[in-house]
Design goal:
By secondary structure, this protein is an all-alpha fold. It is 74% helix and 0% strand.
């Protein structure tokens, strides 16, 4: 049962489907605005912090799904497809 959790986790981490760019449009825009002198450095940092928090929430949600799947597999006593 634990092997299926590891396989799923590896698939989630290394999957190339629906891969999101590491620098979001908002961060690119904030960086360009900062480089052009249109916004303060704090604005750039806030955009990066917001992106990091959103990513962390995404990965926490994925981890919760995998943990729930592992709990379900343990409860039924076999791997689920």
């Amino acid at each position: 049962m634990s092997q299926s959790l590891v396989k799923n986790l590896v698939h989630v981490i290394y999957s190339t489907k629906q891969r999101e760019p590491w620098i979001s449009k908002e961060c690119r825009d904030a960086l360009s605005a900062y480089q052009a002198g249109r916004v303060e450095f704090v604005t750039l940092l806030e955009a990066q912090r917001a992106l990091r928090e959103a990513r962390m929430g995404y990965f926490k949600a994925q981890a919760n799904v995998l943990q729930s799947l592992a709990d379900l597999e343990r409860a039924v006593g076999r791997d689920l497809p």
